[in-house]
Amino acid sequence: MNKEVFTKHILIKAEKNCNEGEKMSVHLYSHNDLDGVSCGILAKYAFKEKVQVQYLSVNRVDYQVADFLTAVAGYERDYTLYITDVSVNRDNEAKIEAFVQKGGRIQLIDHHKTALTLNQYKWGLVTVEDDIGKKTCATSLFYHYLVEHGLIEEKPVLDEYVELVRLYDTWDWEKQQKVEAKRLNDLLYMQSIEDFEESMLERLTNHVHFTFDGFEERLLDLEEKKTERYIKRKRRELVQTNIGNLCLGIVHAESYHSELGNALGKDNPHLDCIAIMNMGSKKIGFRTIHDHIDVSDIAGKYGGGGHAKAAGCTLTKEAFKVFIDKPFQIKPLKEDAKHNQINIKGYCALFENRDEDFFLVYQRKQGEWLLEKNHKLLSHTSTSFTNMEHYIKRTYQVGLAHDDKLIEYLLEGYQREQKNRQS
């Protein structure tokens, strides 16, 4: 709906409300991911047909909020607006404050640290962690808000659904091995938002506990196998580069960003984070498995934001140069060999890179690990195999070689020693 049509629609409805004495109109603008959509589901559960819900990309939120505030000017007391899982810019901050001062009702609920400054306003509710240190999500915050204001009542099925959303959005589901949270997100992206809403609302209204039905379980099993195949293919396309003091992995992908970023991060713990390029949507997603890295800071440098372990930004011209143009000529990162029986990490292990250089890691004495490059001893030493592997992977972009190459390397080294002795 364009601005002119939207404005006309809102004004007509506002005039009808004033003339006919209808109850206050409720609107909700939310993000278009699982957390944002679940806020919409809770709003429809609480307000039924009285609420109008719109799911928006991060880039569309400020335009939509500005249009709304312009459209309802003069009718502020007839409207309530909830903004969930997204934030607003400085210009809209001032407009919202003016709207509230004129009697309008707006409540912004978010959990991203980049929005914490909005807590200075009465209409701002931004909480990253609760009082006991548990990470929040917009759905959990909105749920508690609705309960505290007597708009809905707590019950097991709602508690369970909200917790699954929170677990997925904060990525705590993996620590707690709550795979149902990931499967809930998978289910959203396997169907339209409208179908997902309808299904969840029916479940939240009529069920005592939250579960998937048999058909959904079968679909989710198939989706899981599809995801595994996709990640396997993308592992071969990962590129490693340094940006500032960070060592990043870069991959181009249009699907399964969270799962892909997590899998690639686990495969390559020497990388500080994974940057996922989506050329179709012109977006970059950042993921990390490390507690000492905050990818929202990286995204923030390019006008984006998000969580400490999951964030994103638009692919600006500057970001294009850094994440696509400069790394374009880099060869994909060498994967670790799988199913080895001889060349195993933690012992005498051989690594190789795309330039066919070989790096042998071995222990001379307890707590002293040495490194050879193509049979020449290098000066770098480490106190553990893990530290040495971290160093050579960040420095030389290597992967664990296959068993046969370790045997060839050691045999070649032995032959060299014999030749040197004879000469």
From TrEMBL:
PANTHER family: 3',5'-CYCLIC-NUCLEOTIDE PHOSPHODIESTERASE, OLIGORIBONUCLEASE NRNB. InterPro entries: DHH_sf, DHHA1_dom, NrnB_C, Nucleotide_metab_enz. Residues 349-419 form the Oligoribonuclease NrnB C-terminal domain. Residues 274-325 form the DHHA1 domain. This is Oligoribonuclease NrnB/cAMP/cGMP phosphodiesterase (DHH superfamily). It comes from the Bacteria. It comes from Metabacillus malikii. Gene3D superfamilies: 3.10.310.30.
